[in-house]
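Re: the 428-residue chain
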Amino acid sequence: MALVMFSAMVVLLLLGFPMMVPLIAGALIGVIELFGTVDKTEFMIQQMLGGIRPSSLIAVPMFILAADIMTRGQSAGRLIDMVMAFVRHVRGGLAVSTAAACALFGAVSGSTQATVVAVGTPLRPRMLKGGYKDSFILALIVNSSDIAFLIPPSIGMIIYGVVAKASIPELFIAGIGPGLLILVMFSIYSMIYAKMNDVPTEPAATWSERAHAVKRALWPLGFPILIIGGIFFGIFSPTEAAAISVAYAVFLEVLVFRTMKITELYQVALSTGMVTAVVFILVGAGASFAWVLSFAQIPQQILGALGIDEMGQIGVLFTIAVAFFIGCMFVDPIVVILIFVPIFAPVVEKTGLDPILVGTLITLQAAIGSATPPFGCDIFTAVAVFKRPYLEVIRGTPPFVFMLLSVSILMIFFPQVALFLRDIAFDK
């Protein structure tokens, strides 16, 4: 049964169908195999509707909408200008600015692909002019976008929290530590690269220029303060934070910066609606597919063959990390989270692993996989946005993937990398 389901999905993918079609087809084949008739497809439909029912998912379209509004306005540009004012004169300062800008924009959007577009579009031409090779620039932008998947708000963490029934506020706070560690590692590597390749530095900004850049960025800096601060201190939930971020984005771009007219919000909302529809169809299809797998006890058979029941906590974490990393190299991270999390959930509970640690590790692996060849979705976003060949986009990725995987290994052996801030915020 499993072989038939996965074979059909692979064939449909190779024929060029969008991911939602193979998922639904796989679930449908599973239902027919289980019950011997198409009359029981109502169970599949019930699972699809149940998959998009959790109220926590309301945060997803709102964070996407907030990111869309800011990308079209001045918020992203002002954050980038502020970072560059402080580090552009350092050897590798432009590259460090790019990584830091990805982290800041991630604290607003929660989307890796939105970060590639918002940060990469203005900074790539500037880095080219500054003497960096395009292969390094593209790899830096694509992999720095991974930070956006960890720094709250994270769409991946919201999906994991819904599927695993884990605390989304705790997940958000746990993602900050690994995200900042990745930023530090990328910054150090960028400085070494700039020195080895004799990349020239830019003139240092004066303190008055820095003060001006900070002043211009004060309003956009309100986003991470509102979202992270509000959740950290228990003022509001992630869903409420999403609603506040949309209201704040409209306030800034329409009333403060005046970069948008209120009538333009319709087109932005329409774009967000299209993206949200795709995400929610994937969530519903993934939920039904995961239900079929669980009902047929396919996960138990696979994990039994791997001998996972005999593994300790570290062995289970390594298995989870490898599974999600490989899965996201080929398929959209949201789909992988929807399918794999229910498979590993019983093992995680049995071994006594902290679901927040597991969720943070899964989110990081999903982010790494989405920026890793052959089919990482962020790679194709960069190919489309920057109009560069696929091989050029992936040429400079190995050092970044190595650093990202190093952080994953650190999290496995030293869980406090992820749990330190969570424990402080929630008195664990």
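The chain has a mean pLDDT of 85.
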